[in-house]
Amino acid sequence: MHVIIGGCGRVGAQLAEQLARGGHDVVVIDADPESFDRIGSAFNGETLIGNIINKDTLHNAGIERANAVAAVTNLDNANLMAVQIARELFDVKITVARLFNPQREESYRKIGVTYVSGTRLVARAIMKQLDIDTYPPHLGFTEGNIDIVELVVTEKGHGMTVSEMQNRGDLRIAAVERDGRTRIPAGRDKLVHDDLLVAAIRGGHTGRRARGLLKSPATSRRV
Question: Which residue ranges form the domains of the chain, and what is each CATH number?
Answer without folding.
Answer: 2-122 (3.40.50.720), 146-215 (3.30.70.1450)
